[in-house]
Amino acid sequence: xxxxxxxxxxxxxxxxxxxxxxxxxxxxxxxxxxxxxxxxxxxxxxxxxxxxxxxxxxxxxxxxxxxxxxxxxxxxxxxxxxxxxxxxxxxxxxxxxxxxxxxxxxxxxxxxxxxxxxxxxxxxxxxxxxxxxxxxxxxxxxxxxxxxxxxxxxxxxxxxxxxxxxxxxxxxxxxxxxxxxxxxxxxxxxxxxxxxxxxxxxxxxxxxxxxxxxxxxxxxxxxxxxxxxxxxxxxxxxxxxxxxxxxxxxxxxxxxxxxxxxxxxxxxxxxxxxxxxxxxxxxxxxxxxxxxxxxxxxxxxxxxxxxxxxxxxxxxxxxxxxxxxxxxxxxxxxxxxxxxxxxxxxxxxxxxxxxxxxxxxxxxxxxxxxxxxxxxxxxxxxxxxxxxxxxxxxxxxxxxxxxxxxxxxxxxxxxxxxxxxxxxxxxxxxxxxxxxxxxxxxxxxxxxxxxxxxxxxxxxxxxxxxxxxxxxxxxxxxxxxxxxxxxxxxxxxxxxxxxxxxxxxxxxxxxxxxxxxxxxxxx
Length: 523
What we know:
Blueprint: H1 3-28, H2 36-58, H3 62-72, H4 76-90, H5 99-117, H6 119-122, E1 126-134, E2 137-144, H7 146-173, H8 178-199, H9 210-228, H10 235-244, E3 248-252, E4 258-261, H11 263-268, H12 281-285, E5 302-308, E6 311-323, E7 329-338, H13 340-354, H14 364-381, E8 385-392, H15 395-402, H16 404-421, E9 427-432, E10 435-441, H17 445-460, E11 464-466, E12 469-471, E13 475-481, H18 488-504, E14 510-514, E15 517-520
Parallel strand pairs: 13-14
Antiparallel strand pairs: 1-2, 3-4, 3-7, 5-6, 6-7, 8-10, 8-13, 9-10, 11-12, 14-15
């Protein structure tokens, strides 16, 4: 046996050993990548092909060679379709790897194996086989039958489809995983090219070079697995994380041009479509995010309010630089967080802090604080300011006669009537129970009394309609005005005394306190 002869067989056997190692490693990683089991099968089938071809070349007679040719076909026909399955899994098309589709992909390889095993009798795969000497080797020279053409076309089709899937994914995944994708692409294309050269008769001695090429591609893939964690860290992991993020993410290059964004960002930002990739981010986003700037600091998030589907949404936008491994900047990320629920909850809590829960108008605490500021402003500017206090007459009898729910309806009814007359500049609040206050900036005492009279007449003329019938409601009013250096306590006391006078005088009327003097108001 010549040295070249022995070396060639050893190289092919090494390819088989590499594939066994790859299969073992892939099986160990089965819990980390769904395609690991698939890769294990590829390695298993490739090892069968390599060892079978090595034994074929060691044979001297057709009787020695044929069993190993048949042995090779227990692995060879399955490599290409199982590779296609792996590429589907690797590039995120797992939904297509169903039991039905796997059976469909393996149908032709199974038939190829059956036709090879039965070829001595049926001749569906090879029409004839002759033994020829090529240098130091004895080579089986085949005359192909129709099924061999089907088998070869199907194998090439699977490898071409695998290459197309990888190249398509490469365009979407970007440069981060180029080593992994290039390794897989070489592993697919190089054996396919070698097989084509073999079929065209462009290889020395007519020897199939694919097992030798597989030694190189197996070693390359083994290096990629150990160095780049090929089976553990896959580009589809990036896609699954990127697309499943709750926050919107937009990736920009150093020029501020959009190079990618996830599904969450598309849902949040109107106008962010696929054709936005390659466009300037500020131009695309400015229509939705007013005054948006790419270089805003990452530590100072900005909140934007957008209206989508007839509802207001609140988004917090934060920009941060992206750095390469050498520390140099390579772009920016725009992180968009939906803070609608948090913002609405905050607004609700703030509203509960200064609004009356039942009527929706301001509460006593907010009124006292704000009214004190109004007094200071009016005193400083010398502008008029008046105060009105309103109390529902005989409210206890409404509760006792019709129940507390009807009492609540009566309060809401009175508040609504008062709001229709009070101007937007007025500060209207529930002071306690059935008592209400209104601060009237810019209003003199007689104007405040006139407004109170309008409210009184509106209430008296608008009975509450209930299931039990109409309920007549009246209210009494007291009013006072800021004069001199009165404090908030002074004004509240004067208005309260005027209210007391209105009730003492028969209710359903307006009384004012003018410098401590109680007067009934008649419009």
